[in-house]
Amino acid sequence: MSEDPTPVSASPFRSEPSARDEAPQFVLPLVVRIEKAEPPARTDALETSARAVLTILADERSAGEGEWAGAMRDWQDARIRKVVRRARGAEWRRAEALPGITVTGKSAEVRVFPPVPLDGWPKDLARLQVSGTDLDDPEPPVDADPAAPVLWLNPDLGMSAGKAMAQAGHAAQLAWWELSDEERTAWRDAGFPLAVRTAEAARWSELTGVGLPLVRDAGFTEIAPGSCTVVADHPALRREPHGSGRAASTRSQ
After folding, report:
1. Which secondary structure element, helix H or strand E, spans residue 89, and what is its range?
2. pLDDT, tens digit, 9 for 90 and up, residues 19-58
3. pTM for the predicted model, two decimal places
4. How far is CA 138 from the centre of its chain?
5. Residue 189: closest CA among 54, 64, 67, 49
6. Which residue intervals make up region (Disordered) (predicted)?
7. How open is the CA angle 66-72-76, to the nearest 5 degrees?
8. Residue 20: CA count within 13 A, CB half-sphere
């Protein structure tokens, strides 16, 4: 299995001050399409957001000498931030005209963009709303396939859809970092199948103690600092002893 590319003491998902805080800060923008008449289902939006993060991580433009590679390196050299905004109608069409990737789920559309400076958003994205991004599931989600990757949400936390979308993206990224090149390729070639579900209380307690990638939020918005939000349960990470079970911290907004 591959090692996390960042030493634990310098992880961009830790909340303690580090040299990463001194680097220029970047953010990965995600925009979810929410039309008044046909909003997406909440769970589908969360799953689509996670796949969008994986898609840009795996894109050839994000690696080597690709056109997004510099921005991706700058982003990952600092704190790993993700911000979800919402758009509809003309706002969505303007967002689609900017360089990025649109990922479509069953009812959700999420566009992910290469990272931008924290204070340097393109105006057509900066004007989009962050707050108020809340969604519902018309029907309860079906049980997750135990043979597929599952991003398990903390049952004790109430998060808006936008916040939960960013947290699911963090968890997907942690799982991606932990996989070997062969496992990443297999996941990508399969279309990044995954599910996002809220764990039952007993299951959550079990999941947080077995060494799977765990997102711990920095507490900038909605929830208390240090809150554990999502566990990334990928089959490849269950098969072998993996990692130290560290709690990885996020700097989401």
Report:
1. helix 89-96
2. 555 566 889 999 999 999 999 999 999 999 999 999 999 9
3. 0.85
4. 23
5. 54
6. 1-21
7. 150
8. 25
